[in-house]
Design a protein that fits this description.
Elements lengths: L1 H27 L20 H21 L5 H6 L8 H20 L8 H4 L2 E2 L2 E2 L2 H26 L4 H30 L4 H25 L9 H24 L1
Antiparallel strand pairs: 1-2
Length: 253
């Protein structure tokens, strides 16, 4: 009986060997397709969680401003309120400026060519600045210098009282602009758009915003700019155009 089972096992192993040789010879004569001919249709989505966290933080800041600082004011009353009827203008201006800096940095940070080497080499607690961090610092620096020079400008011409009216009026303008930037950020990061092509439209958009802002300041009922025409010309050239050129050079050159 034992020799019978041994004989069956030998026959089975021999048959498996013959089957293996047949499959091996068959497969050897058929070239396998190259791996590069396959197209991987699995898409690895880009991780943009940081964008939505920043945008949600900006919306929370606006909600806090409207409910606490502006005392439950609705959007219409906030945008149309008069200077002498408003309160807590400085905190509202600071919050709006922070939201503007964050949303603008999120929008344009992916378009800067590279972080300068002297900035990239800096390490704070083992962390290096990425494009967003560098853009945010540049935008904050730009806004701080611009605001400081604006304050000194009004003080130097003996019209310091108009400075508070100016930043009260600019708060309304930048509040609306911040919401437009939030919409553009959501469109850029969460919709299938060609970022290379849309950058040109961003340039047109910001040029239009700049021109509109100048006319907004010139013809606003609060008369935020100085009365004399040469002071107005000086303000537009030195405190509107020059800082923008500086920011452009910091980010794109």
């Amino acid at each position: 009986m034992t020799s019978f089972f041994i004989s069956i096992c030998k026959d089975s192993l021999f048959n498996l060997f013959i089957l293996y040789k047949i499959i091996y010879n068959f497969a050897k004569n058929i070239p396998l397709p190259l791996s590069q001919n396959f197209i991987n249709h699995i898409r690895i989505p880009e991780n943009n969680d940081w964008v939505i966290f920043i945008l949600l933080g900006c919306i929370f800041l606006f909600i806090f401003m409207m409910n606490i600082i502006e005392r439950d004011a609705n959007l219409r009353d906030f945008l149309l309120q008069k200077y002498f009827d408003a309160s807590n203008n400085l905190p509202s201006w600071i919050i709006t400026s922070c939201v503007l800096a964050l949303t603008l940095s999120v929008l344009i940070s992916q378009y800067i060519p590279v972080v300068p080497k002297f900035v990239a080499d800096l390490q704070i607690a083992g962390f290096q600045l990425n494009k967003f961090g560098y853009t945010l610092i540049a935008v904050v620096f730009f806004y701080f210098i611009k605001s400081s020079l604006g304050f000194l400008f009004y003080q130097s011409i003996g019209d310091g009282k108009k400075w508070s009216i100016f930043y009260f009026t600019s708060t309304k303008f930048y509040f609306v602009l911040s919401f437009l930037l939030i919409i553009l950020c959501v469109t850029q990061y969460y919709f299938p758009v060609d970022r290379n092509k849309i950058f040109l439209y961003y340039l047109y958009f910001f040029i239009f915003v700049f021109i509109f802002k100048v006319f907004f300041y010139l013809f606003h009922r609060n008369n935020v700019l100085p009365e004399k025409w040469y002071y107005k010309f000086l303000y537009i050239c030195t405190l509107q155009i020059a800082p923008l050129l500086l920011l452009w050079k910091l980010l794109f050159f």
